[in-house]
Amino acid sequence: MNKIIYLDAAASALKTDALIAAEVDFLRYKYANAGRGICARVTAVDDMVAQTRTDVAAFINAAADENIVFTGGATDAMNRIARLIDSSLGTDKTIMVSDLDHHSARLPFECICGSRGGNIVLCPLDTENNLDYSNLPYADVFVITAMSNVFGMPQDVARLVAAARKKNPDVITVVDAAQYVVHEKIDVQQWDCDFMCFSAHKIGGDTGLGIMYMKNPERWVLPDKFGGGMVAKINGGETAHNREIQWEPVPAKFEAGTLPLTQIAGLGVAIKQWSPRAGADVMRHIRQGLERMPRVQIYTAPDAAVATFSVEGMHVLDFGALCGARGLCMRVGNMCASWAVRRLGAPAGGVARLSAGPWNTIADADRALEIISEVIK
């Protein structure tokens, strides 16, 4: 069997032995539910969750641990952010999105406007398909994709936030950092954003865990989801009309139900092992090889974190299947970012994308290029 060349880091990172060992150790020897007991094992789990929250806060330079909410992933976080904002602003709102957005970043806000009212406006892009901070329209909410999973270029988030606030000092800024976090250091204080989210699995953590950063969590009086662990006390009668609910302090107020504890047990390890721009040398090598191939059209910039391309005369699904049969794992299709792919003018079916991680070597890149060359001949 051929060795698998995994060049799909932008979709999800492979897991290290240390990450797997940490989660197995937790499941085998340390498991208990958090926040629901007073025995020594539960206390140890509570301490583990608190320490991981501290690690995350330091990782993104958050002002306090209370700004960090654990979610089911970046998609879950974006949908929750949309619900929180919708309940606060009501129907008369203008939301700015862009053609860089992943479906998870844009669709929750578009669907809210479609069902409850509101206006969607587009953030303009410059000639290099970057968000154009010099010509922003007015908005009540600004959804910012910090790095497109199609174009792979970091955006100047701090400058975009500042430009949006010049148009509206009260604008709520929401940053999707799911791709950015893999390649660049996040500094939410420098960005000055109101919300930010990313998924653990993009940086080598486990699936089913996301981070939702909230700059001012106390601003959002009513939580967006309800259940165990978030209620401090219920006073009064048996119906909503004559009772008062006291919520737990943040972040517990926004963490209803059982947390994804196994994934949290591994996240601290993933953060410690994270390295910015890992795989950059491999990507440069791949880019240079693709540039020498006939029929290959590359859409991304030379210094992009990913290589997005198509092959003249081949449907992308055929191309992907033939490469996959030879042991090359990559992403093909619309990347869950239909608007960005459409801007490329790519063939029907979408594009192919190669993305390297810290596990990849130049030998992997050479073998991938060899496979692609075989397939397109």
Describe what is shown at a glance:
By secondary structure, the protein is an alpha/beta fold.
Question: Which features characterize this protein?
Answer:
12 helices, Aspartate Aminotransferase, domain 2, globular, alpha/beta, 377 residues, 37% helix, Aspartate Aminotransferase, domain 1, four-stranded antiparallel sheet
List the helices and strands and how they pair.
Elements: E1 5-6, H1 17-30, H2 40-60, E2 68-71, H3 74-89, E3 94-97, H4 103-116, E4 119-122, E5 141-145, H5 157-167, E6 172-176, H6 180-183, H7 188-191, E7 195-199, E8 210-214, E9 231-236, E10 243-247, H8 261-273, H9 280-291, E11 296-298, E12 307-311, H10 316-325, E13 328-329, E14 331-333, H11 338-344, E15 351-354, H12 362-376
Parallel strand pairs: 1-13, 3-4, 3-5, 5-6, 6-7
Antiparallel strand pairs: 2-8, 7-8, 9-10, 11-12, 12-15, 14-15
Helix pairs in contact: 1-8, 2-8, 3-4, 9-12
What is the CATH superfamily classification of the largest domain?
Type I PLP-dependent aspartate aminotransferase-like (Major domain)
Oligomer: single chain
Q: In the CATH hierarchy, what is the class of the largest domain?
A: Alpha Beta
Straight-line N-to-C gap: 23 Å
The proportion of residues in beta strands is 15-25%
Backbone shape: globular
Tally of strands: 15
Query: What is the CATH topology assignment of the largest domain?
Result: Aspartate Aminotransferase, domain 2
What's the CATH architecture of the largest domain?
3-Layer(aba) Sandwich
Number of helices: 12
